Amino acid sequence: MHVNGKVALVTGGAQGIGRAFVQALLGKGAKVALLDRNSEAGQKSKAVLDEQFEAQRTVFIQCDVTDQEQLKGAFEKVIEHFGRLDIVVNNAGVNNEKDWESTIQINLVSIISFHMFILQYLMLRST
Ligand SMILES: NC(=O)c1ccc[n+]([C@@H]2O[C@H](COP(=O)([O-])OP(=O)(O)OC[C@H]3O[C@@H](n4cnc5c(N)ncnc54)[C@H](O)[C@@H]3O)[C@@H](O)[C@H]2O)c1
To answer: Based on C-alpha coordinates, what's the Rg of the chain?
Structure first.
């Protein structure tokens, strides 16, 4: 897949696997929006990435993926900032057996609902 010049959104992009996705996408020429509920980690990551890539190629947006309004607001900010969206990495997740309800909400429900939301955008765009 050609990613040069495309716009990507990575949930949970502030650290871990999400952050590695962000780095790889930037390395291949994409512009990337990092979404994460952890504002401190998100801002730190953006600052580090800005030393390696042009600052305007990344944007950090604080967002909790379990909150549909925040997620839609973040999507709108990405469109406002970059003008389009081509790639979504639905990565945000936790591994917390003690709080299984929140774990299912983050790892399953949010993934599916954001996926459905993005599909609508991509289908509208292609008509
Ligand atoms: N690391 C592994 O070996 C491994 C293996 C298999 C699956 N996974 C899964 O892959 C995903 C990422 O793993 P990781 O190791 O990078 O984890 P990580 O904890 O290092 O990073 C996850 C990121 O997601 C963010 N996040 C969590 N909940 C969020 C929410 N509600 N809204 C927005 N952001 C949120 C966190 O703030 C964090 O920045 C997780 O779902 C994890 O369970 C990880």
So the answer is: 14
Q: Report the separation in Å between the CA atom of 79 and the middle of ligand 1, taken as the mean of its atom positions.
A: 24
Q: Which CATH architecture has domain 7-126?
A: 3-Layer(aba) Sandwich (3.40)
**Residue 59: other Cβ atoms inside 10 A:** 20
Domain ranges for the chain, please list them: 7-126
Separation between Cα atoms, residue 43 and residue 39, nearest integer Å: 6
Q: Check pocket membership of 3 for ligand 1, CB cut-off 6 A.
A: no
Give the Å distance between the CA of 68 and the centre of ligand 1.
Answer: 18
- Chain segment 33-81, per-residue pLDDT in tens: 999 999 999 999 999 999 999 999 999 999 999 999 999 999 999 999 9
Are the beta carbons of 63 and 73 closer than 8 angstroms? yes
Q: What is the pLDDT of residues 82-116, one digit of tens each?
A: 999 999 999 999 999 999 999 999 999 999 999 99
Q: Which atom of ligand 1 is nearest to the CA of 95?
A: 43
Nearest alpha carbon, ligand 1 atom 3: 17
Whether 34 contacts 10, CB under 8 Å: yes
